[in-house]
Amino acid sequence: MAKNITPRSQDYSRWYLDVIREARLAEHAPVRGCMVIRPTGYALWENMQAALDRMFKDTGHENAYFPLFIPKSFLSKEASHVDGFAKECAVVTHSRLISTPDGVAVDPTSRLEEELIVRPTSETIIWDTYRGWIQSYRDLPILINQWANVVRWEMRTRLFLRTMEFLWQEGHTAHATAEEAVEETTRMLEVYRVFAEEYMAMPVVTGVKTASERFAGAVDTYCIEALMQDGKALQAGTSHFLGQNFAKAFDVTFQDNTGKTEHVWATSWGVSTRLIGGLIMTHSDDDGLVLPPRLAPVQVVIVPIWKNDEEQEKVGAYAKGILAELKAAGIRAKYDDRSQYKPGWKFAQHEVEGVPIRIAVGPRDAENGMVEVARRDTRTKEAQPREGVADRTKALLDVIQADLYAAAKQRMTENTRTADTYEEFKTLLDGPGGFIYAHWDGTPETEARIKEETKATIRCLPLDNPHDTPGSCMVTGKPSARRVLFARSY
Q1: CATH for the 12-283 domain, from 3.30.930.10, 3.60.20.10, 3.30.1360.70, 2.60.130.10
Q2: CB atoms within 10 A of CB 149
Q3: What is the pLDDT of residue 1?
Q4: Which residues of the chain have pLDDT under 70?
Q5: pTM strictly above 0.85
């Protein structure tokens, strides 16, 4: 157990923040509710970006960029959209500062004719732009993704999970038919599922949100839901079928191949730096960060051990040869030869930062053609021959990736239960927590009552539902077509 990290069993929230601090991922910014993402944390986000960007482009999408500022009038064009975001918007009202004896002040003469909203999401400004891009069915589909930052005025924040400003990607697509748009929505949901499970080693449940939980302005919201180690759910990504709501609000029409004028069908979808929070809470332990190799900024660190200049020269040459071989094999490897730190300190720091594999080499290793290989996830180590180190390391990285997913999948399975009565449901929530499948009568009134009384929400109506059988609502006793997935959440 790392001395500066609170045990999970003692205070899970404190543990989470301790891991972020000790692994040097992020810290609170001078601006309340915002964060500074440190190099290790940003490198992790860059690896996520790179993987997702490849997946987006493989499915035909292109990147573009749209303004940070949105005219206030744009948000009022789609009623449910403005209702959903009105309380979270930061508003720009003036364009200048003036000097005063006390410093600076807002120039009262610089008030804007129309206030600007700092982007909480980009549907409105993008659909105003699409109106000029789309005239005919030949202009469709439009498959655009944007990497950007957004601002949502949150009062209660937590690093990565919920901050006032965060980084994300948002896809916005336009289609000629509803069928094409729905197909796009589910295609991108599958991209997110594959990324979560195959890159993050984080198992998820895919499903559809209820009407009260769907995105403001959407017809349907699809999601991936993950389960953290403390038994709380995390919405890790969403994909929205927007119907023709935004096309009608911004008068985006096209002529089909018969000459008939129709409104365009739309989707939007996104994931954010919240995924880093999910990664931390899925795999990490009381010794710090644990990272899946496919996303780890450094997959292997080589730590040399020596006592004098002669040993340093011999071990250094040996270690650099290993480093070159690992890099040639496409492994993200680092040689930590900092002389101001002792090997034990380096071991502890790379452990808390979640480097999947550590290779230690000393004078005897150099003489005997050996290395010591340690796994971060299992905390095990063994001596191995130097020969073939790159091939064995690549294979071990794959094993670690698979083992992390298997452990998280087993944990999710063990913490997924069913409840037949409301009392049983509440007992499970207050005890082990986790995912709970229970019957619900389908009404927003019952959904709201459950949320108010238990703080649990319907995470989704799972697409692949293992409990797709009729029954009676656990609260009202009314007929229920199938069980739905409940949990308390972040």
Answers
A1: 3.30.930.10
A2: 13
A3: 64
A4: 1
A5: yes
